Amino acid sequence: MNSSELVEKAAGCLAGLAVGDAMGLPTQFLTPEKIESEFGRIEDFRSPPDWHPYGDSLPGTVTDDTEQALALTDMILENGGELTAPDSAEALLGWAREKDLLGTEYVGPSTGRALEKIASGTDPRITGFGGVTNGASMRIAPVGIINPLIGGESRNGLLREVRTVCTPTHNTPIAVAGASAVAAVIGEGMAGNTDVESILHSGRNAGKTAYGRTEEALPDISAVGDGVTMELLTGRISPSLGRRVEMALELAEKTGIEELPGKLYDVIGAGVNTIETVPTAMALFSVSAEDPVKAVTLAANAGGDTDTIAAIAGAMAGAYAGYSVFSSGYLERVEEVNDLNIQEYARNLVQLIDEGGN
């Protein structure tokens, strides 16, 4: 892949993330039935109902999914591609403070709890032991972008960096596994892999490896203080991500594409936990890899945590299909409403790859 091809993929990934986030905002945490009654069907940016938590948002507005991913991107660029847990914590805390969101429900449950602890002076290496939600997976795209998967060692580097940026808020086997699966799919797309089945297999394997490595690296429960014992215990409990992804992909093979979001909502889940969000997003990617807008519209109508599912599915499909597949209307609106320059971010991230920063 030459630089221009990498920029095309990186911009596609970030575009899919932002467009999906904005497309899914008005239906966030609604049931499929409520989505149908309020909107009929989401196929474009829409305003949320007045009573919705984001009821005053303009069509095309992004949420914390995109904002946190770009906060990490800024940190990665400032550090020349080097990632540390304290720097990741500082980037997220800086974002929350700038937006005046610290202590509010708009930050996300795991991230919010961890950032409040970090703000009070707690070491960020021990604040993420209870984080099992999808916050890590929704913002991991820049790590996937700067780690195009071109061999076994490149995957090892990807998994190390994913765990590093997950540590402050989501230092649990399932959260790191989910973020690793998403980053690996993006990394495969960045490297130009066109075999969707192979890409999904790489994602599942990355998740499995990351789960085991994270479990092994966690401290012995008998040796930690009382303040994190319960978090360590509960953060280690999870169904198998790999098996849940397999179930979701089996559903995708057997279900018509328009019926798939509802089936995933019923069987796999579409809530805020990683074990639901990532398999559902990967299944939607599996049927729409070449059409990121299709991926995000399917997610926006699925119900549940629609903005995050759409952001993740859109990021994976965008890395696969590239920036040029998006119609200018979608990108112009999301960039204008949120004052974004997606291609500039993409060029700067690819420059890190060209300079050997990763």
Defining traits:
single chain, 358 residues, mainly alpha, ADP-ribosylglycohydrolase fold
Write a brief structural summary.
This protein has 358 residues and is mostly helical. The protein is 64% helix and 0% strand. Helix 9 (173-190) runs parallel beside helix 16, helix 14 crosses helix 16 and helix 15 packs antiparallel against helix 16.
Can you walk through the features of this model?
The protein has 358 residues and is an all-alpha fold. It has a single domain (3-354), classed as ADP-ribosylation/Crystallin J1 (ADP-ribosylglycohydrolase fold, Orthogonal Bundle), CATH 1.10.4080.10. Helix content is 64%, strand content 0%. The chain has 18 helices and no strands. It has helices spanning 3-24, 32-39, 64-78, 85-98, 109-119, 135-138, 141-145, 152-166, 173-190, 196-217, 226-235, 241-254, 260-267, 274-288, 292-300, 306-321, 328-338, 342-354. α1 (3-24) crosses α18. The longest helix is centred in the first third of the chain and has 22 residues, at 3-24. The chain is globular. The relative contact order is 0.19. The model has no long low-confidence stretch (mean pLDDT 95).
